[in-house]
Design goal:
The complex is a heterodimer of chains A (279) and B (249). Chain A has 279 residues and is mainly α. Helices cover 67% and strands 0% of the residues of chain A. Chain B is extended. The chains are: A mainly alpha (279), B mainly alpha (249). Chains A and B meet through helix 1, helix 2, helix 4, helix 5 and helix 6 of A and helix 1, helix 2, helix 3, helix 5 and helix 6 of B.
């Protein structure tokens, strides 16, 4: 935060600490301090995305594009007419806003139909290329000459101490894994005992994949948590009055007051209604 | 009118997008690119619609003093505050770009011999450009983004660490061979990626690397391929009007 005045820097640090701890207060239960932070977040995010949509897309792709076209036309360049097609996007965009008026909201289906058609067509090719053909190409590799381009075999076993390196065994595991998982997900025909057995191996690979993915997700979230704690620790500066400690005390006091004075069990979304007693 | 027109639009645009890939024809590509841009702009308007709708619903709740109207008022203030701050930032960016152009024009109009002091016009333009750039760099918008949006966003995701950990505690139970595999893979990946894993057993990082590169890739690839086939099938169904998700609501 270089080049900021001490007041602005202090204000930023205080805001960061208060809001961070306000969100963490949800660990106690849903409470007004968390709700405040939540609404601030939604409001700021909505304003930010509005700004991004307008400045990042509507202005350059519509307003600027059409204005450039008009400038070209004023200079006598007929290429400017091509840019005038973009008025169609403005019409479609305004039709989207018809959703705000229930009587004519059905018109918003037209622009949405265009969006769905455009991205269905684009994704059809994109997914076929990236997620199907490229994945097949990357899986079924020739075992000879793969690494060097020469007609030589890759080692059967990976080098000692480096089991992650490419080897015949690892590639066999990859191919077997892909084929068995695909077999497991193949529901279009009645499952014979052989297919069922192959599918069982597929489930094992799926479980390994889910386990590895879940482990990665847990670690990613924990590293985010460590990042937040580090931010609080770095913000604990005497010149600004120890913002994290004071904020934590303040939030705890406010929560205690809220719990003792204002809390009503019916407001608590975490409490499930008691099951009806059998008579 | 309400059903046929959207179906025809989807079919026409979808087929054009596919043709764009297969036909090397300037006309087809130009039309497809223009339609794609229309889609991009329409999506941006959909975001604007979402924000306007959020404003409308919350404003109504505030005016009618409905439950939690105070929070909704805060939401509206933050939203319009961020939009206004964004407008100011945009203006300052334009100002900075203008000052930069003025500086380039001043430099071009006043060539300076090597080693000589720059003329006052260039010095003044440079100073104005630096001031404008500083003003564009440090705005209320960037302040709110850095000190409010980013910490809130990161903390909300960090909060999930507690829930993911508690979910892991419940799901990682070796009741069968397959659930044991899930448990083993997750534990090896988690331990292998933290420094203490290497201290416990030096092979943990190597083993986690192998799991991530080979069995995990095998599973991920098969899932990706299955999803791609599903996407292609759904895309075809949507383009030919067999499935019409945009007609709902």
């Amino acid at each position: 935060m270089e080049n900021l005045s001490p007041f602005t820097e202090g204000l930023g640090i205080w805001l960061t600490c208060l809001l961070t701890l306000a969100v963490f207060s949800f660990l106690y239960r849903d409470n007004p301090i968390y709700k405040l932070a939540e609404h601030v977040y939604v409001g700021v995010a909505a304003g930010y995305y509005f700004y991004q949509a307008f400045r990042g897309t509507v202005y350059p792709n519509l307003i600027q594009h059409v204005a450039d076209g008009i400038q070209l036309l004023n200079k006598g360049d007929a290429a400017g007419w091509t840019a005038q097609w973009r008025w169609g996007a403005l019409v479609l965009g305004l039709l989207v806003l018809s959703r705000l008026f229930p009587k004519i909201s059905w018109i918003s289906r037209w622009p949405m139909a265009l969006v769905v058609g455009a991205f269905a067509g684009l994704n059809l090719i994109g997914f076929a290329q990236a997620n199907l053909i490229d994945q097949i190409n990357g899986t079924f590799l020739p075992l000879g000459g793969y690494m060097t381009g020469k007609a030589e075999m890759m080692p059967f076993l990976p080098p000692a101490g480096k089991p992650g390196e490419a080897s015949v065994l690892n590639h066999i595991i990859l191919v077997v894994g892909v084929l068995t998982v695909l077999t497991y997900f193949f529901f279009s025909a009645k499952r014979s005992p052989v297919l069922a057995r192959i599918g069982q191996v597929g489930i094992a690979f799926v479980m390994l994949t889910f386990g590895a993915t879940y482990g990665s997700i847990v670690l990613a979230r924990i590293s985010l948590l460590i990042g937040r704690v580090q931010t609080l620790e770095e913000s604990n500066r005497a010149e600004f009055g120890y913002p994290p400690i004071v904020s934590a005390v303040l939030i705890v006091v406010l929560l205690a007051v809220w719990r003792m004075v204002y809390f009503r069990p019916s407001d608590d979304a975490n409490i499930e209604p008691e099951p009806a007693r059998k008579t | 009118m309400r059903t046929l027109v959207p179906v025809l639009i989807t079919a026409f645009v979808g087929v054009f997008m596919i043709l764009k890939f297969f036909l090397v024809h300037d006309g087809v590509r130009t039309v497809a690119n223009e339609l794609e841009q229309w889609g991009v702009v329409t999506l941006a308007f959909a975001i604007i619609l979402g924000v306007l709708n959020l404003a409308r619903i919350n404003l109504k709740a505030v005016l009618e003093r409905k439950r939690d109207w105070g929070y909704k008022l805060i939401l509206l203030v933050c939203m319009f505050g961020m939009m206004t701050a964004g407008g100011v930032k945009w203006y300052r960016d334009i100002d900075a770009a203008r000052a930069q152009k003025a500086l380039e024009a001043a430099v071009a109009a006043n060539p300076v011999a090597e080693g000589a002091a720059p003329p006052p016009a260039v010095v003044e333009a440079r100073r104005a450009s630096e001031v404008a750039e500083q003003r564009a760099k440090f705005t209320v918008f960037t302040f709110i983004f850095d000190q409010v949006y980013t910490p809130l966003s990161a903390t909300i995701y960090a909060l999930l660490a507690f829930y993911v950990a508690s979910a892991a505690f419940r799901s990682f139970r070796a009741k069968s061979l397959h659930s044991a595999l899930l448990l083993i893979a997750a534990v090896i990946v988690m331990i292998g990626r933290v420094p203490v894993g290497k201290v416990i057993w030096s092979k943990f990082p190597v083993l986690q690397d192998w799991i991530m590169v080979w069995p995990n890739t095998a599973g991920q690839r098969a899932i990706l391929m299955g999803a791609a086939i599903g996407m292609i099938a759904t895309g075809i169904r949507v383009i030919f009007g067999i499935e019409r998700p945009y007609l709902k609501g």
